[in-house]
Amino acid sequence: MTLPPALLLGLLLLAALLAVAAPFLAAAARPRLGRLVPAACILAALGLAGCAASALALGAPEPLLLPFGPPWGPMSLALDGLSAWFLLLLGLSGAACALFAALREAAAPPRQAAGLPLLLAGLALTLLAADGFSLLLGLGLTALALWLPLAAGEAEDAAPRLAAGLALGFSLFSLACLATAIGLLAGTAGDLSFAALRAAPPQGWQAAAVMALVMLGAGAGAGLLPLHGWLPLLQPHLPASTGALLSAVVGKVFLYVAARLLLDIGGPAQPLGWGVPLLAAGAATAVFGALRATQEGDARSILACAGLGHLGLVALAFGLSASLRAADLGALAALAAGAGLLHALGHGLFQTLLTLVVGEIQHSAGSRRLDRLGGLIHAMPAVALAAIAGCAAAAALPPMAGFAGNWLLLQALLAAWRVGELGFQVLVAAAVASVGVAASLGALAMLRFWALAFLGRPRAPRTLGAQEPPRALRFLFLALAGAAGGIGILPGPLLQLATPALSLVSGHAGPAEISVWSVSAAAAASDYRPLGIALLLAVAFLGLVALLRQISPRATVRGPAWDGGFAAPPPHLPFGEPLTQPSALGFAQPLRRMLARRLLAAREDITLPPPGDTGPARLQSHFHDPLLPALLAPLLRARAACADQAERLRDLSIRHLLGMVFFLILALLGVLAWWGGGA
Amino acid sequence: MTLLAGIVAQLLHLLLMLALAPLLLGCIRILEARLMGRRGPPLLQPWRDLLKLLKKRPVLAENASIVSAVTPYVGLAATLVAASLVPGFARDMALSPLADLLLVVGLLAIARCALALAALDIGSGLGGLGAARAMSFAAFAEPAFLLAVMGFAMLAGSTNLDAIGIALQEGAPGPRISLGLALVALLAVALVENGRVPLDQPLDHPAGAPAVTLLQGAMLLEASGRHLALWQMTAALRLTLWLALLAALFLPFGIAPADSGPLAWMLGLAVWLPKLLLLALLLAVFESAIARMRVFRVPEFLGAALLLALLGLVFLFLSTGLA
After folding, report:
1. Which residues of B touch A560 (CB under 8 A)?
2. ipTM for this prediction
3. Model pTM?
4. For this UniProt entry, which residues form the secretion signal (chain B) (predicted)?
5. Are the Cβ atoms of B128 and A587 closer than 8 angstroms?
6. Closest chain A C-alpha to B161 CA, distance in angstroms
């Protein structure tokens, strides 16, 4: 095969996406094109998913060299197992987001409409890149796509612009770190293609520097602790489709970059500690993201933070895989990598579903705040059904997608004591505990979101206007919910499909004990048979229903709520006093007191009326993320100091300035000569 | 033949669990009453309550959704599947290849979420309070449970319940002190998961009026008729499941292989029932001896369990490192 058709197709789709985005960059308002753009995006995303699936099933196509790029190394595209796996997620999630955009965001201003195709193109270029330059170009495009929709709109308040600026700052920091890391990997040879990088893996201090830089770069892009602060701020301001793509795919793509640079290119022959930074950052992110998700009041922020938690689990799995590979436990390393990949795909799909559901709720019920919703299950039953499937998957309940990923990850963690180093064993035990905390906090966050939005009584009159979405959207939601169930029920075939990716990440052909019906860590270890569990649950449920129908045939009757004996509400409140319902803050209160006081600086202020006053007592509670201010405050001080210093440059003469430039060039050449000589 | 024996043993086990669950609850009530110097209700009282509730007509609140009507079945179905996975009088039953400890954790989580959803369905304040607390406690219970599971996985090389039982029964099961610490951690988790005394007043407790029991009782305020019967059965079955789980993990002797014939089954049953009774007695003594705990002390209680489980693991790490 001389021409790699799948890659050419991918290239064409990329070009199409860019072309679609281009006219909007000129900010020309063309309402008739409103639906054309998302429609083109759907086709392109489905095409990308098709490319990825064919590459996974039929084998990787030949790399494609492009006739442009820097003179010392032309840009090249390739699709191997690892990139194909993530491209599959991008294609599926992107198609869903574009369909939502076509139906609900056709009238968006052009800058916002340009975000989706640009983001798709940037992420696809990152995944298809076969050299460092294209990878950075794709990431740069991604950063632009996230900043553009909010940068210069006619926003009334400064918050969106601030969030976009913060996101851009973090993205640029991430790009700078990754560019330096790729430069260190390439050395002075100048060949940036992955094949050349793989031939000379980093060693010694270079390996440590690459690890630190990639952790900073990928961490800032994906939102790993402590560089996560921009994500929950940006998420609520983006349109639902772009936001869904952001929380479902963008973080995964940065983890893909980390896996590519650290595990695939730099992975072989590393010490045991190679995976520890990813493992520790992943575990911390998982707990912190899930805890913050239990406290937020805006549904989009809840989902963004819960998404961070799941992303942490994927990072944990990749880090564990790297360490197990270093300890020569190949099959376990493959199991951990498989857990990461499976969870990345599953989480990508249910996160897309939930974020789009919130978009639909906002469209239909007029708010995303849990305290303004309630009782939506009566108005939009199909959406509620799809959403509860997504929530069950996110809450890691069997047999849904989240549980399959967690189960595989825990199996790898539970066997990781075989490494033998006591310090690493204790770290693994801490990781096991944090997976447990993250899973149960995630379950609480999802239950709180679903129950407060869909159950209970309406908390605001506007909620009554909610209605079911058009048939296409209902179909989309239910299809995504089905995917979340399908991934949970069929982890075996999916892991078999992911074998090329597994061998790239873990250096091992994949765990042997995998069949269609069951997955297992090793022959002697325990099996997980999700199809059997699903069948058992269904049989037990239906059996119980049939049995109870026989032995307790009396029909149910309706009556006023008992509610512990409370009186009926006054007639001007047809849905009861909203304050008697559980609120978003109230539901979060136990955890706020138990955990969030230390981790999220949560506080509760009680104001009691003075004796004799009949006014009510007031309870005010708030929390904030202490990490972002802790990061930004020194940065702002440093910026002010730098600006003061830079002011002094203005007073220098031309002689001094030329001298400075000259010495800088000399110093750089000196570094180059020293490094080149040493290599 | 083996398959047939496995299926018969599995069905028998399931029926036994279902029949025993309310009886065990009645037994605990009698024991607790005797410890307090009262006679206590008859042993069959929980079964009578269930049958009475089944005859009644369930009343749903006016704004209740389908969630109130469906979740009782979901909760009991998930608990039932979990209960059928935990070995009782026999091992190698038909479903034992599926009997994974992590899966049991997941199935119990389904039942917990179903109960919380039912509590939140009509938007009553007490229901929300109970649901928020029950779900928050789980965030502390689950890591302690998982660390204990890690200890068993180290000893047995598997998280399958049968495999763990066989490994602990046959092999020299490593340092006893690790098992002891894991036992304490799992006991604390079991008390929390079942809403027993130091955490919550159980519904069947002498002082257990619904308004006092802020976990279980608050969540079941709106349930009635067969829905309430299903929830009560779920709670009883969950308690029996936990006792059977503790028996299978820490007292793994005398369990009959499923293909060894009815006589061996009877023998297994004769060993299994006293184990359950012993655990029930321990529970009754503990509950009578200890006072209820403030809600916000619970994280400390479970944090101690977490630390003990971690300590047990470190002992295991050290002993495997020395061996």
Report:
1. 61-62
2. 0.92
3. 0.91
4. none
5. yes
6. 9
